[in-house]
Amino acid sequence: MKPLFIVLILVGIQGSSAVKHSLKYFYTASSGIKNFPSYVSAGLVDDVQISYCDSNINKNIPKQDWIKKVSSEYPNYWKEETQTCQVKQRIFKANLEIAKQRFNQTEGVHFYQQMYGCEWDDETGEARGYDEFGYDGEDLITLNPKTQEWIAPKPQAVITKHKWDHDKDAAEHEKYYLTQICAEWLQKYVNYGRSSLMRTDLPSVSLLQRTPSSPVSCIATGFYPKRAEMFWRKNGEEIHDGVDKGEILPNNDGTFQMSAHIDLRSVPTEDWPKYECVFQLYGVNDITNRLEKTRILTNGRTQIKFLKKFNRCLPKRVCCLGPSVLMLHCPCRPDVLIRLDVLLVIAGPHECRLD
């Protein structure tokens, strides 16, 4: 395989030393999907999955070695987390049926989801919480953290909005939990996993073109933390026309991948060296790849070698839950990225696949 020509320049995403940490929980009840758990939950710290539970295994399990340290301080932690999972499982299945009734639906594939958690600034100590519910990939009801009132973009959720808005005790409890309790647990988790969460992993960056008429894809895989940017520039200036940026996606080894694609069909080959892909990772120097034909991995044997050696990306089967609410069989291919804005849960020992 052709070597990777990576140029380091003295500009990076340096920023301040302050870091915002996040704790997120995702809950999903589903119906109409063959060979997939009817309930799935996951916890993530700084976008790294720390826990997993579903209706098949019926217990909450740790997903990182460092999160197991919580047991030394709280011996009943995983037992209580399992109990919480079992209770929420019943609640979410019931709420899914209520949502289906309100939308006048009885059959087909449907999802009822919640995402909640908090962000904490380790320099200022400021904490911000959020709580959002969705149905079939669209917002159903969302908490406004400033007013502590619920926003219902769907008429089917208005009755729930009025009920929750009038429950002042519950509103105060939620505010306290999201801004205090959640932040306290987040700090504990960060301390448990500090050596892992605060590390820096540099990526492999390469250029890939599937066919001569296809866009050229700049792909970075294996980087950590998630605070990264990627863009194309011409003659030193960032460009946007003809550029399509992919989402940052998790790899199955705790790192991340991202891509940026550029359409060069109208650009003469002799002008290609004027273009370069720039990858920026928080706290380190930029990595640039100048666009030259000799550096592009093309379809065929070279591409296969690239995939095998450099792609530490998605496992063969994952559970993809996002705005499109698709459960997908996702091959491990960096040139075919899945747009996710809500959740990608690695489904533990259970394969997630639509037959």
TrEMBL record:
Gene3D superfamilies in the record: Immunoglobulins (2.60.40.10), MHC class I-like antigen recognition-like (3.30.500.10)
Residues of the signal peptide: 1-18
Keywords: Glycoprotein, Signal
PROSITE patterns listed in its UniProt record: IG_LIKE
Family named by the database record: Belongs to the MHC class I family.
Organism of provenance: Poecilia reticulata
InterPro entries: Ig-like_dom, Ig-like_dom_sf, Ig-like_fold, Ig_C1-set, MHC_class-I_related, MHC_I-like_Ag-recog, MHC_I-like_Ag-recog_sf, MHC_I/II-like_Ag-recog
Record lineage: Eukaryota, Metazoa, Chordata, Craniata, Vertebrata
Record-level GO BP terms: immune response
Taxonomic superkingdom: Eukaryota
Ig-like domain mapped to chain residues: 203-277
Regions annotated as coiled coil: none
GO cellular component: external side of plasma membrane; extracellular space
Name the record gives this protein: H-2 class I histocompatibility antigen, K-K alpha chain-like
